[in-house]
Amino acid sequence: MERTDRDVDEFLAALEGDRADAMRELDRIIGAEFAGLERVLWQGVFWGGTEQEIIGYGAITQPRPKGGSVDWFLVGLADQAKHVSVYVNAAEDGAYLVQRHASELGRVKVGSAAIAIPSLDRLDLDAFVRVLRRAKELTPDAR
Predict the structure, then answer these.
(1) Source organism's superkingdom (predicted)?
(2) Global pTM?
């Protein structure tokens, strides 16, 4: 995946369908928590080999398990076929934040570093904001 020059607001405005409003609302929430940090649209082949467009918030350099590092985002937001995904690339005490707080996030599916949100009313927004704030605290070098 690579950063693009595409305007994030134009990308969001062009979204249609059931999850378009959820994408815009989550962007508003995440953007407020990450004000002053990078907000950019990433595009390309993502995990599992699918073509994705992900809004990335907070530029980070993330170490890779097998050496080296990669430029990435602290939090990502993507519209999927059946849900909205939020990726939180921050860990505490050896576990990704979303895993540590899975029971607080509502009726959503939590993976390693991802939250799958079928509809916004299933996400506990207060707990979600707490996770975002903790991710930012744990990653002071995000830019």
Answers:
(1) Bacteria
(2) 0.94
